[in-house]
Amino acid sequence: ERVMRARYRYYKAVYAPKTSLSSVFFGVVIVVSILQFVLWTQLHNQTMGYALKMTQTQQKIKARIAVLSAELNCVGNKKKAQNKEKLFEIEQQATKEVLDTVHLVGGAAKPKPTDVLAAKLFLIPYSIMMWFFFHIRWYTLFTIMKKEYGFEEEEYLSRRALGIKPAAWEAMEDAQKEEILDRRLWEGDNLLEYQEEQKEAQMEKLAKSNRYKQYRRYMKNQGS
User: What is the C-alpha to C-alpha distance for residues 129 and 145, in angstroms, rounded to an integer?
Assistant: First the structure.
């Protein structure tokens, strides 16, 4: 029995892990977070590259270059080296300004340090506290005190009704957001009416599509 105990203590000392599980866990979280940030950055840059090649984007850049060139009065003699440098700076500035107006959502959005796994785990206590604060404030102001919704509250209710995330909402055109807010989708049957209108508009747009017309002719021929 003593021999068995001695062997047990020996093997336990030799083969026991030298690194604690907590260290391994934190190491894995850090590595995963770095990979997340690198991959999201690459995806964002690739998507922005595709956006830059689009005809609409190029037209906006050319229009912005014309405006900036007129403001700086450097459209004239392009043979001068100084003027070429100014034109190059204008092109860079116009490209940056136009690309800054491109709103990407989801995995293609510009990554932030707070989006990675390590940051989310670290911010869990803060997120829980803010969740309780939000719901207590909402219940106090709008259930007990019966106050009217403000602009931010109406945006929140509209997003919740449509199931839209904040990033996707921010990427919408201002006119579209105003239209949605005016519909007050959180009241009564407004949401159902809006969804039906969107379906009808989508079907009408689809009916005018050449691919859809080809598909319908194909299905008709198959049926006959």
Answer: 22
How many Cα atoms sit within 13 Å of 169 on the Cβ side? 19
**Is pLDDT at 167 greater than 90 in this prediction?**
no
pLDDT at 103: 77
In angstroms, the CA 159 to CA 116 distance is: 24
pLDDT for 5-20, tens place per residue? 666 565 555 555 556 7
CA dist 12 to 2, 3, 5, 23, 122, Å? Answer: 15, 14, 10, 20, 34
Most confident of 89-98, 101-110, 150-159: 150-159
As to burial, measured by CB atoms within 10 angstroms (0-12 exposed, 13-18 middle, 19+ buried), residue 75 is middle
Q: In the prediction, which pLDDT does 101 show?
A: 82
Which class for 98: exposed (0-12), middle (13-18), buried (19 or more C-beta within 10 A)? buried
pTM, full prediction: 0.64
